[in-house]
């Protein structure tokens, strides 16, 4: 059973002053959902039910447009060599600005991504601040606060790797978009993230009962902390944290392609997923458009954005089963019986990880594929982080062992493909791990930031227009600078 099988709008408070962006060039309008719950704050935060509803609102907002659709795709995917805009050439052409590094601070999707993360953060701050004085089970209260700290850390991580230093908002506000404080340094943001994740890991359970599957766990906090440490090259911490997660009972799902289907969500490999669902009777809660915006264009109401490139298709070694699990090729039929048909002028490849088989239930009141979860942290990534840290610390034996676990699943029992990596040369093994991250985690919002943190962006993205000392981060949205009366400063080069 998924978390949040039912969300009572009356009981969920999102005191955001939420803003809705519109993209008139899109041929399909995205679902415009009003903020869920408009109960005044002074009458809320009184009961254990209020505390639970406040936490549920955090998870509900994670699947919103700003968190999973155009803004997230633009900021976290399109700049990489693995993806391009997709759809028809003239549809949402502004997204090309992220693919070719011509984006300016006035591009609207920048503001959408920024707003989405701070909406998450404000919801988390509300829980952390307001449930302290509620009379309720103290263990549950502590868990709720830990869940909020995990999501706050996740949202700040998305912000800091996209923009560098950002304002640190740790108190709830009725208007988070205009909360006027200066940017903290990137190191200060990372310090808050790590403190939140330490607190979360100390309190969160390792697992839940069926009614709460999908909530943040101890493993999620530890794995996210490892990822945050990796971006700071804290290799001792990465190794220790991933070793801990590797002892917690996670395992690789046997079939890579099936891993990303709806019926295998929250599997043995799942460490954290954004929970999405189709609610026939509550259209406003069936608001995830993650799958809809990326599905096979013109088929079953999909839009066809964020499509894999030929560069990505060519990156897979012969016999790698992940190629078909990652890319839907026009002219083929999926193992689930869907023919991917060609339309003149449309893409020839689509994101296989966002794919929902066409016979999956939906209706006109809900986005197509609204029940497709977004995979955020998988056990395969923990193994690859462990391999990278072990190699950087001079332990090739452990690095090769963790790397081989990932490759063994990809060869799916065929000993004639994907031979085990055997090199113990540090530089060669590092490159092998980088390659494995490219093909294992393709189209999962990591490739661009991976290449930047690895110091290879000029080499890999230079042909696309990437410039050093500028494109390591995106511009701060001009709307936010204006709201701050220029207290916020712009990133260099924009």
Task: Tell me what the structure shows.
With 494 residues, this protein is mainly alpha-helical. The protein has a domain at 14-23 and 40-204 and 457-494: Serine Threonine Protein Phosphatase 5, Tetratricopeptide repeat (Alpha Horseshoe). 42% of the residues lie in helices and 5% in strands. The chain has 19 helices and 6 strands. Strands 1-3 form a two-stranded antiparallel ribbon. A two-stranded antiparallel sheet has the order 2-6. Strands 4-5 form a two-stranded antiparallel ribbon. It is globular and about 65 Å long. Mean pLDDT is 91; it is low at 1-38.
Relevant terms:
single chain; 494 residues; mainly alpha; Serine Threonine Protein Phosphatase 5, Tetratricopeptide repeat; two-stranded antiparallel sheet; two-stranded antiparallel ribbon; 19 helices; 6 strands; globular; disordered N terminus
């Amino acid at each position: 059973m998924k978390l949040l099988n039912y969300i009572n709008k009356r009981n969920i408070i999102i005191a955001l002053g939420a803003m809705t962006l519109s993209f008139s060039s899109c041929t399909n309008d995205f679902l415009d959902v009003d903020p869920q719950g408009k109960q005044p704050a002074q009458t809320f935060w009184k009961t254990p039910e209020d505390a639970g509803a406040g936490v549920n609102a955090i998870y509900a907002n994670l699947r919103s447009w700003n968190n999973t659709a155009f803004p997230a795709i633009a900021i976290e995917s399109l700049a990489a060599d693995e993806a391009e805009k997709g759809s028809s050439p003239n549809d949402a052409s502004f997204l090309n600005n992220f693919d070719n590094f011509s984006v300016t601070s006035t591009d609207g999707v920048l503001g959408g991504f920024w707003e989405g993360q701070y909406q998450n953060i404000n919801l988390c701050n509300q829980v952390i601040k307001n449930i302290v004085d509620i009379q309720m089970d103290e263990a549950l209260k502590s868990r709720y606060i830990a869940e909020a700290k995990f999501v706050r850390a996740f949202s700040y991580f998305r912000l800091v790797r996209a923009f560098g230093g950002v304002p640190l908002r740790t108190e709830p506000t009725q208007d988070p978009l205009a909360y006027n404080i200066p940017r903290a340094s990137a190191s200060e943001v990372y310090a808050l993230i790590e403190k939140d994740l330490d607190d979360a890991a100390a309190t969160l359970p390792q697992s839940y009962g069926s009614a709460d599957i999908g909530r943040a766990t101890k493993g999620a906090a530890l794995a996210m902390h490892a990822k945050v440490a990796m971006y700071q090259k804290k290799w001792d911490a990465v190794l220790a944290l991933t070793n801990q997660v590797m002892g917690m009972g996670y395992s690789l799902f046997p079939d890579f392609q099936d891993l990303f289907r709806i019926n295998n969500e929250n599997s043995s490999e799942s460490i954290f997923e954004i929970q999405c669902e189709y609610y026939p009777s509550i259209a406003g809660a069936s608001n995830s458009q993650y799958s809809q915006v990326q599905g096979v264009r013109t088929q079953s109401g999909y839009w066809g954005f964020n499509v894999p490139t030929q560069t990505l298709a060519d990156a897979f070694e012969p016999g790698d089963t992940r190629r078909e699990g990652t890319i839907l090729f026009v002219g083929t039929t999926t193992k689930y019986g869907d023919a991917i048909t060609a339309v003149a002028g449309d893409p020839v490849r689509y994101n296989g990880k966002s794919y929902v088989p066409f016979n999956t239930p939906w209706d006109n009141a809900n986005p197509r594929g609204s029940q497709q979860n977004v995979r955020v942290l998988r056990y395969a990534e923990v193994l690859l982080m462990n391999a990278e840290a072990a190699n950087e610390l001079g332990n090739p034996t452990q690095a090769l062992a963790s790397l081989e676990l990932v490759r063994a699943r990809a060869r799916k029992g065929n000993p004639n493909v994907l031979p085990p990596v055997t090199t113990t040369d540090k530089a060669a093994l590092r490159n092998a791990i980088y390659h494995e991250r490219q093909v294992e985690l393709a189209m999962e919002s990591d490739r661009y930031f991976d290449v930047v943190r690895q110091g290879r962006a000029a080499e890999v993205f230079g042909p696309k227009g990437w410039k050093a000392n500028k494109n390591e981060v995106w511009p701060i949205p001009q709307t936010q600078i204006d709201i701050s009366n220029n207290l916020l400063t712009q990133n260099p080069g924009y």
